[in-house]
Design a protein that fits this description.
Elements: E1 2-9, H1 16-26, E2 35-38, E3 53-63, E4 69-78, E5 100-104, H2 108-119, E6 123-128, H3 136-146, H4 180-189, H5 209-222, E7 226-229, E8 231-238, E9 244-254, E10 260-267, E11 270-272, H6 279-287, E12 293-294, E13 297-306, H7 307-314, E14 331-334, E15 337-345, E16 349-352, E17 362-365, E18 374-383, H8 399-415, E19 425-429, H9 430-435, E20 451-453, H10 456-459, H11 462-478, E21 489-494, E22 501-502, E23 518-520, H12 522-525, H13 531-553
Parallel strand pairs: 2-3, 5-6, 5-11, 6-7, 11-23, 19-20
Antiparallel strand pairs: 1-4, 3-4, 8-9, 9-10, 12-22, 13-18, 13-21, 14-15, 15-18, 16-17, 19-21
Helix pairs in contact: 2-5, 2-13
């Protein structure tokens, strides 16, 4: 197989005949050679049985350094030496009578662990504290409109996890952790656009993800797996015979007194995939003697610009109707710590992502078309355990968690008395923030609960505020002229980039080093960040379960 590059106009597909001409030259074939061209973004692939070579469009990215172009990477296979084989997903087995494996959490890590268990002949039993992806929409709508928070059903908790209502970004640098193709092809098989198979920065979109998530559940259930919603885990224990027992409060099965009924589930292995915001799970594990440790994370603000400004900056004034909404990413070093953009949402909206009362947490999301008027991104500061203020040192492994919570609460304390919606967030214009002065007014925003003028430069801890104030002008100077503007608004606080806690696990078995049979998984365990890396970690944990059970059977 050889690779070569081609360019094409944004908004138009690459012509197969053009690919054939270049491929013939690269493969030293005659210009009349019959060459198949495979475009993974198309449902129908016209092929010729007498073809002497096959070309596959492997990757597509936008290059706006000069004229705005698509840049393609093409893989070419000369049939004289090798053949191209289409990617095939593993077969899902009927596991109705198979050995159960408990999966706690129905986010990306939990869902993809469950799908992998099906291929391995094991029965996933999924316990999810929140609601199914359809019903949780009503709780999120109420949170946005009225500021009423359901601690178990919100933008973080519920089927699909936090990723189901973010943007569905599938970009990851975790290629060494597992098979990214398996994750992307599974998403496509469950309803995602085939474009994600080739796009350099693939995304699904908040409007499409819920249906994809529902289709994954239907697959798991139809093959014998189980889903239990409203099942909040309160205890995980190990019996004398090695069996794991998980106790839950089932809010969908109430007692005569109207309280959640206590239920128990048992299996030899438990995959714990509860996400980065399940603070009560960490507390439960700590109380039971499970080893935990503080880890680095990041915290900052959500930054919102007009999308047309970002388009103008990134496309160097060449943006036209029909071109994708522009994205951006950057990293700056300030006082020995990284300041970087995170989870950028072109054409997106800001959303409230708190999971606890009397806290403000920001996130962003965008639909598949990314056609909104605003662009937002988290801009956050790298925080290592040694950076956390000394007053949190007594919290031990929870010091990052308690520091994170204190900042979220400070945001709420400032803003809640100034607006009718309890989820209204403190905000400040960008230049005002960097110059340390209050904003007299604020620009229009996509954040429905509303924003209130606030001295974010004082509300944020100095280790964050000082670095952010230096970073924004640097971004404009180094990569995005026009980014540093008082028309941009900063909204606090972006705090859930990753978990401040890690659950140490054995690198071979992936089981907790202090709790055999429990496999900490995904973002909540501190081993991934984002949808794809979480999904890959879920797959790896399922494989580890199968290996361990096979070894025990010998």
């Amino acid at each position: 197989m050889i690779e070569f590059e081609m360019t094409g106009r944004v908004g138009r597909d690459l012509r197969p005949d053009d690919v054939r001409k270049v491929a013939a030259r690269e493969l030293n074939l005659k210009g009349s050679a019959v060459i198949n061209v495979i475009d993974p973004t198309k449902s129908y692939q016209p092929t010729y049985p007498n073809a002497v070579a096959t070309c596959v469009i492997a990757r597509r990215s936008i290059d706006a350094r000069g004229d705005v172009l698509y840049r393609y990477r093409i893989e070419a296979y000369n049939h004289k030496f090798e053949s191209w084989q289409p990617y095939e997903l593993p077969e899902y087995k009927d596991v109705s009578g198979a050995e159960p494996v408990i999966v706690v959490g129905a986010g990306p890590a939990g869902m993809f662990a469950a799908l992998k268990l099906l291929t391995l002949g094991l029965r996933p039993v999924i316990l999810e504290r929140g609601k199914n992806v359809h019903d949780r929409k009503f709780d999120m709508a109420r949170l946005t409109r009225e500021g009423v928070l359901d601690p178990d059903s919100n933008y973080c908790y519920g089927e699909g996890g936090a990723g189901a209502f973010s943007d569905g970004k599938l970009f990851t640098r975790s290629s060494k952790r597992g098979d990214i193709k398996e994750v992307l092809h599974q998403f496509v098989s469950f309803g995602a656009n085939q474009q994600i198979l080739v796009d350099a920065h693939p995304h699904i979109g908040t409007d499409r993800l819920p249906k994809v998530v529902e289709n994954i559940r239907s697959c798991i259930v139809s093959h014998g797996g189980e889903y239990h919603f409203g099942s909040k885990v309160t205890q995980v224990s190990r019996k004398a015979d090695g069996t794991m027992e998980v106790k839950v409060l089932d809010s969908e099965d109430l007692t005569k007194a109207g309280k959640p009924r206590v239920k128990k589930y048992a299996a030899r292995k438990v995959i714990l995939a509860t996400g980065h915001s399940a603070r009560d799970v960490y507390e439960m594990l700590s109380a039971q003697g499970c080893s935990l440790e503080a880890k680095g994370f990041a915290m900052g603000v959500r930054v919102e610009h007009r999308q047309d400004l970002i388009n103008d900056i990134r496309y160097h004034g060449q943006w036209e109707q029909g071109m994708p909404a522009a994205e951006y990413s950057f990293t700056e070093q300030v006082d020995g710590r990284g300041v970087f953009s995170f989870c950028m949402c072109p054409g997106g909206v800001l959303v409230p992502s708190a999971t606890e009362p009397e806290t403000i947490v920001m996130n962003g999301m965008s639909n598949s078309a990314r056609s909104g008027r605003f662009a937002n991104a988290g801009v956050v500061v790298q925080i290592e355990p040694e950076d956390i203020p000394v007053e949190f040192e007594s919290s031990g492994a929870f010091k990052g968690l308690d520091f994170q919570r204190s900042v979220e609460r400070r945001m709420w304390e400032y803003s809640h008395a100034m607006a009718s919606n309890p989820m209204a967030a403190p905000a400040q214009r960008m230049v005002d923030f960097c110059e340390g002065q209050m904003s007299e007014d604020l620009p229009e925003t996509s954040y429905k609960p509303g924003i209130v003028p606030a001295p974010l430069h004082e509300l944020l801890p100095p280790l964050i505020a000082d670095r952010l104030s230096e970073a924004f002008p640097l971004v404009a100077r180094h990569t995005m002229r026009g980014y540093y503007t008082n028309d941009a608004v900063l909204v606090g606080v972006e705090s859930r980039t990753s978990s401040p806690v890690r659950i140490p696990r054995d690198p071979k078995t992936l089981e907790s080093v202090s709790f055999p049979g429990l496999l900490p998984c995904g973002e909540g365990a501190g081993y991934s960040g984002g949808i794809v890396s979480s999904a890959i970690d879920g797959i790896n944990c399922a494989l580890a379960v199968a290996r361990s059970l096979a070894d025990e059977a010998v």
